[in-house]
Amino acid sequence: LSCFPGGLPRDTGDAAPQLRVVGPGHALTATMGQDVVLPCHLSPQHDAHSLEVRWIRDSISETVHHYRNGEDLYGEQMGAYAGRTELARDGLSAGSLDLRITGLRPSDDGQYVCTVGDVDAYDEAIVELEVAAIGADPHLSLGGYEAGGVRVLCRSAGWYPLPQLLWMDARGQHLPSVSQTHSQDQEGFFEIEGAVIVTGSVEGPLSCVVRNSRLQEERESSLHIAGTNGRARRWMVALALVLMILAVSIGLGVYLFVKKSKLAVLEWRAGRCSAGTRVGLEQGALGLSSAPDGLAPSVPAVKVTLDPHTAHPLLVLSQDNSSVRRECERQQVPDTPERFVIWCCVLGREEFREGRHCWLVEVEGERLKYSSWAVGVIRASVERKRFFTRSPEGGIWAVQYYHKHLESLTSPPTPLSLSPVPTRIWVCLDCTQGQVSFINADNGVQIFTFTEASFNGESIRPWFCLGTEGIQLCLRVGTLQTTTPAMQGSTTSPATPASPLLGPAGPAQE
C-alpha cells in the first residue's frame, strides 16, 4: 500500500512499478534575495514527463508548484510563490524534479516536500531550506551612567534569522550583556540591540559582534576605551563633560528647530505636517511665490532616466530607460559594483547636490491593489551589495505602498491615511532646504514631506523599488502646478489630467 497526498491508501498490486524519490539528505542554506534550486530526483533515473509532481510545504493545501502531464498548474499555488517558481523541465527526462525559487524571502524558510505519483505509485522526499541574511555593521553609541560605569549600546538591523550579539574586550574575553532586545520588520528582517556596562577595569577596544550562525558570518564594530585604574577617573570625568556638551547641543538644536518651525508656520501658513494637507503655494514647501489668480507658477520637471547599471537582476527596464517592471526570472546582467543585489531597486542616472528638482512617477499595471512599490531619493553612497535600512537613517527618503496601504519610510514607518491611494506622484527634492516632498499629481494634495533631511553634502539620486510583479513604475513628463488654499474647491491640476487611482483598501473589486 502507498498513500497519496490526499491521505487515501491505494492498492498498487504486485506488478506495479516502484517510485523512489530522493532529496539532498541535508539542509540547504541560501542567502536572502538570491535564487535557490531545491534538488529532488527519481532513483533509479527514468523519464518523469508523465508523472504528477507537486512541491508542497506542510500540507497538500500549501502548494508551492504543481506539474502534471507536461503542464505547470497554478490554480492551487500559494500566493506567496506566484511568479517565483520553476520546475526544471530540461532534467525531467533523466528523473530530475528540481525546483527553482527566485528572490528568497524570510517566509521561504523551512521544510518543503517533493511529492511524485502516478496511477499506481507514490513517494515523497523532504528538503529543508534555511534562508539567511547578513545585516548592517553594528552601530555603537554611549548611554548614561549606570552601576558605576557607562552604558554602551550596540544595534544592527537586516538579519535573518535572529542573530547572536556578543561583547568582547581587548583580550577577546566575552562580557555579559545587561540587556538585549530584538524586533522583526514587515519583511521579516531582524534588528537586535544589546547593552553592556563599561567600568574602569575595561581598557582598549570594546567590540560588539553580531553573528549569523547559519552562514557562519559576522559583523563587528569597536569602540576604544582609553585608560583604566588611575586614569579611569579622568576618563569618566572626560566622558561626563562630553555627555554634558552633547546634552546642551541637543537642547539648543531642539530650541532652534522649534523656533524655525514656528517661523515657518507664520511665513508659510500652510506648513507641512501630515498626509492630506493641500500645498499652499504662496509659501509652499517648494518655495513657490504667489500668483494673482491663485495658481502657482509652474515648476518644470527635471528629466530623469533610469540607470540600468544599478538595476537589480529581477528588474527589467524599457528601451528608453523611462519605466521599470519586475520579472520572476533573473536577467543575465553583469554584476557591477553599482548594481543592487538585496533590494529590488534601481536608481535614476541624475545626481543632485543643490537646487530644487521635481519629477513625476506613475504606477501602472493590472495588480495595483495587491502590489508593493516605493519611490523617493537615496544617498548616492549607499552600499548596493548589503542590506540597508530603508529610512532616513539608512540614507533613503521615500514613500511606500505595501499591504494595500501607503506609508512614509520614516523610522518606524508612518501610515498615510489617503483614500484613494494616488498612483501619480510628484517627487520634489530641495537640496538647499533639506526637504523631500511627495505630492498627489491629480489633485495637488501634499502626501508627505521629510524636513531637516541630512544630505551631508552628498549627491542625491532618484530611487525606485518594486516588491511585486504585475506593475511598472513610469517616469512621465509634466509641469508641477497645484492650487493655493483659496482654490481648494479645485481637485485636479490643469496640467495633470486624472488617471485611474487605487481604490480604498479592502476586498478585491472585479
Question: Care to give the gist of this entry?
Answer:
By secondary structure, the chain is mainly β. It is 7% helix and 38% strand.
Describe the protein in words.
One of its GO terms (molecular function) is signaling receptor binding. It is a single-pass type I membrane protein. Residues 17-132, 138-224 form the Ig-like domain. Belongs to the immunoglobulin superfamily. BTN/MOG family. InterPro entries: B30.2/SPRY, B30.2/SPRY_sf, BTN3A2-like_Ig-C, Butyrophylin_SPRY, ConA-like_dom_sf, Ig-like_dom, Ig-like_dom_sf, Ig-like_fold. With 510 residues, this protein is mainly β. The protein folds into three domains: 21-132, Immunoglobulin-like (Sandwich); 139-224, Sandwich (Immunoglobulin-like), CATH 2.60.40.10; 306-476, Jelly Rolls, CATH 2.60.120. Helices cover 7% and strands 38% of the residues. The protein is built from one helix and 37 strands. It has one helix at 232-268; strands at 2-3, 9-10, 21-22, 28-31, 36-38, 41-42, 52-56, 63-68, 71-73, 85-87, 99-101, 110-117, 122-132, 139-146, 149-159, 164-168, 174-175, 179-184, 190-198, 204-212, 217-225, 277-278, 299-300, 315-317, 323-326, 345-347, 356-365, 373-379, 396-402, 405-408, 414-416, 424-430, 435-440, 445-450, 460-466, 471-476, 479-480. It has an eight-stranded antiparallel sheet with strand order 22-34-33-32-27-36-25-24, with no helix packed on it. A six-stranded mixed sheet has the order 4-13-12-7-8-9, with no helix packed on it. A hairpin with a 4-residue loop joins β33 (435-440) and β34 (445-450). The longest helix is centred in the middle third of the chain and has 37 residues, at 232-268. It is flat.
